[in-house]
ClpP class periplasmic serine protease (Laspinema olomoucense D3b), 288 residues
Amino acid sequence: MDFNFLDFIWVFFLLASLQPLWQKRQIETRRYQAISEFERQRNSRVILLIHRQESISLLGIPLSRYISIEDSEQILRAIRLTPPNVPIDLILHTPGGLVLATEQIARALIRHQGKVSVFVPHYAMSGGTMLALASDEIIMDENAVLGPVDPQLGTSPAASILKVLEEKPISEIDDQTLIMADIARKAIAQVQRFVRTLLEDNIPVQKINPQDIDTIIEKLTTGQVTHDYPITVEEATEMGLPITVGLPNSIYDLMDLYPQAKVARPTVQYIPMPYQNRPMLPEGKGKG
């Protein structure tokens, strides 16, 4: 059977359209294999909560991912499928998200009878930090960060709204601001109660000094710093949180399988090999 040029064109476009599907299937297979291997090594249930900033946009506004109700549904299902005595390893990479979804996940974690470990390779901000507080063990890369969990009302920190009441007489504040201030006061109180529940009911006494609990709550929930303030490993440890530094290499290998969506021009580029293995030129060579 003879093929003309047009037939080759159609075959080319067919293969081109199937290639992304094949690549997606390949990376999904590699993800499952990596997760299964990590579960075998740790004898645990591994759950990943990874939010990359998406490159797509709506009307020119970039869209980002965060902890959502769909996330809480899926994680709660994974926890239900886990036998009570089997440890859970939660790998977190998230800017935070909905309070309702975060609290649902956190409550499910503290109710799980087996040990819960949270791994933070890069950052777990806001709601991600709250999930870390729900664990028995927080394991972080030495350069990873957590973040404050102070509530936000729209685009305004609850603590900053309350600050208005301190700076101005009531007679000079409009009704809408007064209403927001009342909501802000309630939101802070609710978050503080929940964080106290996580710290007192879940983390063993030998890992955290009970006298540090009030300090942790004060620093994390009252808006002393901006909501995107990075809490380093050193600061979190000084605060009294039970931080372990050092992630297994398999965590980084897993993160490589969840890359940022590619754009036309990479913003970061390097030769992906350990520097100490790089072949070096003899001294004095290669210099202009």
User: Anything to note?
Assistant: The mean pLDDT is 82. The CA atoms of residues 88 and 283 lie 51 Å apart.
